[in-house]
Amino acid sequence: MNTQPAGCATVVPTALLVEAGLRRVATAIRTVAPPPPGDVLAHAARARRLAELHARRARWWTVLERDIVGNHDLPMIYAQAAYAAVAAAEREARFWTDTAEDWTARAEQRPTSDVAGAMSNWHDLGLTAPPNGLPATGTGLLR
């Protein structure tokens, strides 16, 4: 039986909201289908979707971190753990954003980034030095 007056909202603890949000994000990440082999645009779209989901995961962890910091009864180690989770999710989002950019570059026959590794298309494009706009890091250059 609901004892709240009509029109009153139920207050849900932040940790429960974050847990539910993180669960939804984890489910969404698991359901991102692998693209068909050889379809570089599908690879780019998948990478963009994963970047978006990892960025959302970082935002959920940020909500929890702010709640922990505002609750002076909790040890700061909890906030530090949440901060570490934010940083890890942001790194994943950056990785997938960079990956999407490299797949898009391959589709458009533009040079991939210097750190594209096995996905690099520099050899296919006949490059031996970083193209304009890419830093010369000394890694990944063809000799």
Summarize the structure in short:
This protein is mainly alpha-helical. The chain is built from four helices and no strands. The chain is elongated.
Estimated helix fraction: 55-70%
**Total count of helical runs of at least 4 residues:** 4
How many strands in all?
A: 0
Rounded to the nearest angstrom, the radius of gyration is: 21 Å
What is the count of structural domains?
A: 1
- Specify the biggest β-sheet: none
Helix and strand element order: HHHH
The dominant shape is elongated
Strand content: under 5%
Name the structural class.
mainly alpha
Average pLDDT confidence is 85
Residue runs with pLDDT of under 50 for 5 or more positions: 138-143
Measure the end-to-end span: 75 Å
Topology:
Elements: H1 14-30, H2 40-70, H3 76-107, H4 122-125
Helix pairs in contact: 1-2, 2-3
Record keyword descriptors for this entry.
143 residues; mainly alpha; 59% helix; disordered C terminus
Structure description:
The chain has 143 residues and is mainly alpha-helical. It has one domain. The protein is built from four helices and no strands. Helix 1 packs antiparallel against helix 2 and helix 2 runs antiparallel to helix 3. The protein is elongated, with a radius of gyration of 21 Å. Residues 138-143 have low confidence and may be disordered.
